[in-house]
């Protein structure tokens, strides 16, 4: 499938793929697709940042190439690596005389011995891929700097082989939880969208898209309770992912209503910090019913 013609069409396509994008996000994604610009999605935890990239790949029939960032990630994990084991086998298979030629050594550093990592894969796949660079805020500064070449020119330089350029641009989605501020240079190369918590009505809709068998009445109560939890001063306020988990948990237990007891029994689906649990347990009735 090509590109969407309008924001409305993109919204519809994503909805068909089980992802509900509000107008702001759909517009940002539409522009990113239309202008071949990377998009940086920042926001609260568990509000559908990663899922947005997955949904885009699914509805456009593109391959999802995912690079999960972490502290200490480097180009070996992100870009390419030489296949040492195969190089060693090749060296052993060659006679000493064969090894003496430059040609044999050059071949050892040729495409046959290159292990592609996500960024190289994405440059090669071009617009047949969605490249998800997930949680980029966890990577170090140097890695961020290294991403700049890729994001501005969609090209990658491998000293032994040369520069590999994407013929067409992959859609690049970066996500961040904002555990640290990203560099201006990185941000300048991207479109930007902040994802906050959805409105209660939309959150109910999201849960029902994800859990079509869930009771709407119970879902409404859970969403209301989650919103009350977000109003407390919790260290880890629940995201949409937790709302879905909570509905699922209640469903599994055959619970049809949310009262202080059921909240207490199932709190582990939504609140995952000891201090937060204590704060919530001190106010169970209020959370369950808003009383
Ligand atoms: N707008 C949405 N439409 C459909 N599902 C959604 C939406 N937002 C969130 N979800 C659901 O919430 C879950 C969590 O979303 P996701 O993993 O994308 O969050 P995230 O923002 O990447 O969180 P984290 O910051 O923890 O990485 C997804 O599995 C998805 O089911
Ligand atoms: Mg995520």
Number of helices: 16
**Strand order across the largest sheet:** 2-5-8-1-9
Q: Which structural category do the helix and sheet elements fall into?
A: alpha/beta
Number of strands: 9
- Small molecules (ligands, ions, cofactors) in the structure: adenosine-5'-triphosphate, magnesium ion
Biggest sheet details:
5 strands, parallel
What is the rounded distance between the termini? 51 Å
Which regions are unreliable across 5 or more consecutive residues at pLDDT < 50?
Answer: none
What is the gyration radius calculated from CA atoms?
24 Å
SSE pattern: HHEHEHEHHHEHEHEEEHEHHHHHH
Which percent range fits the helix content?
A: 40-55%
- Strand content range: 5-15%
**Average pLDDT value?**
93
Please state the overall shape, judged from the principal axes of the Cα atoms.
elongated
Task: Write a concise keyword list for the protein shown above.
five-stranded parallel beta sheet, binds adenosine-5'-triphosphate, 16 helices, binds magnesium ion, 291 residues, alpha/beta
């Amino acid at each position: 499938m090509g590109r969407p013609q309008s924001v409305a069409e993109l919204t519809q396509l994503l909805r068909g793929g089980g992802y509900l994008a509000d107008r702001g996000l759909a517009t940002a994604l539409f522009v990113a697709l239309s202008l071949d610009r990377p998009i940086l999605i920042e926001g609260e935890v568990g509000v559908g940042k990663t899922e947005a990239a997955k949904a885009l790949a699914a509805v456009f029939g593109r391959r999802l190439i995912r690079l999960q960032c972490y502290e200490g990630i480097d180009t070996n994990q992100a870009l390419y690596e030489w296949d040492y084991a195969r190089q060693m086998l090749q060296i052993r298979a060659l006679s000493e005389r064969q090894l003496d030629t430059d040609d044999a050594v050059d071949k050892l550093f040729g495409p046959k011995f290159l292990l592609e990592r996500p960024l190289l894969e994405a440059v090669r796949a071009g617009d047949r891929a969605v490249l998800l660079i997930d949680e980029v805020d966890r990577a170090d500064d140097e890695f961020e700097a290294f991403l700049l070449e890729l994001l501005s020119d969609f090209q990658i330089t491998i000293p032994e082989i040369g520069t590999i350029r994407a013929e067409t641009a992959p859609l690049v989605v970066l996500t961040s939880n904002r555990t640290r501020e990203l560099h201006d240079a990185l941000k300048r190369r991207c479109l930007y969208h902040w994802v906050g918590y959805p409105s209660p009505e939309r959150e109910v809709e999201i849960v029902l898209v994800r859990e079509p068998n869930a009771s709407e009445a119970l879902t409404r109560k859970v969403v209301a309770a989650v919103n009350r939890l977000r109003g407390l001063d919790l260290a880890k306020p629940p995201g949409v992912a937790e709302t879905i988990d909570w509905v699922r948990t209640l469903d599994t237990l055959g619970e049809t209503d949310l009262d202080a007891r059921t909240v207490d029994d199932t709190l582990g689906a939504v609140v995952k910090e000891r201090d937060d649990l204590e704060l919530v347990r001190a106010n169970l009735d209020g959370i369950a019913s808003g009383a």
